[in-house]
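# nightly structure sweep
# worker-07 picked up a monomer target from the shared queue
# config: single-sequence mode, recycle default, output format = structure tokens
# input follows
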Amino acid sequence: MRRFYERADRWVRSLSQGQYAIFLGLSAGVGVLIAGLAISRELFVLQSLTMAVVMFGLEYKFGLPHSSAE
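# output follows
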């Protein structure tokens, strides 16, 4: 499990700021969809799209710059 975490951590750290913002937005949107299905068996499509766009925008504009050089 630790090896998987380290590999995933390396991959995320190698993403550019724009790629990371896209990844974060997509994962937030999918998370809202899964939570909606798990809790109330409804698809929260509008809420998940809104969350994805908001998370992408905030991370892209205000997130810390990513660089692969560490």
